[in-house]
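Give me the 3D structure for Oxidoreductase, Gfo/Idh/MocA family.
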Amino acid sequence: MSQKIRWGILGVAAINDRLMEPFHTAKTSDIRAIASRTLPKAKDYAAKNNIPVAYGSYEELLQDPNIDAVYIPLPNHMHDEWTRKAADHGKHVLVEKPMTVHAKEAEALVAYCRSKNVRLMDGFMWPHHPRTHKLRKFLDGGAIGDVKKVVAAFTFNLEGLPTGNIRMQPQAGGGGLLDVGCYTTYAIRWWMKAEPVKVFARAAYVNDVDVGMSGVWTFADGRTATFDCGFTHPLRTWVEIVGTEGVVRVPNMWIPDDQAVFQVVRQKGLFDQSIEEIATPGENQMVHMLDDFAAAVFEKREPYPNPDEAVKTGKVLDALAKSAREGREVEVG
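Predicted structure for Oxidoreductase, Gfo/Idh/MocA family (333 residues):
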């Protein structure tokens, strides 16, 4: 293993673009190769993004002995197959979220990668942002009392809902729940520090994929959480954490700006309130994600967050999908 992680990328998906600068600037990262199903596409992307080596197949990249780890931004239904193939070649894997389409697949995949002694992490960036760690410490210190409820939203307008878009294709694991609902699901679990026992969801469908979903979670201690996700509302990317003594609002939860603030709202009297803003400026969550993954590889330990988190999130996603399809409350697990 070199002093830096020597990265390869499977695919030339548009989602790669936001990671190119972090791959080139992270202190632990050395982006070495990219693969596409056609060599001209790989060469073109490599030339535009200063990547030294281009391959005309994913298999060729996995056979490269100078690659330590791969980033997999392929469609959801391809995550399991190519993560396993990467593990077979001894490559550590950062795979786009959700890790797999269903929880049972994720559970088996996590076990498979452990059996191959390779590190596996899904590509949620926000857990790696220092704001997230600051807020966790803030809440655990009792700053707003006991957390009683979390409300989360991640929506954006996918104009026209075009069936040619991978997000709109059921066979590819499309739909708003897996695309952006995985964010709200993970965040609710994260801030509640508990797993729901039951969920109820309603959804609208186009081309047999959910394009808008909202719902309610119920926890064993009686607490609740609510969420809203999908492709039919303007961009909303926030989380609200309700405590017994105050409320935390996190704007731009998933894609923070340079200030990365969260707001602390406290009631004063009956209808007045104070609002305090706490910032965590100048941080790049993508760089932190790459560096955190590299630390797990170098230290030969599980990454943080642990890949089992993807399994737990997957169980909630499965239950939400079932609830929305069947129109009833569903137990989780």
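The two ends are 39 Å apart (CA to CA). Let me know if you want a second pass.
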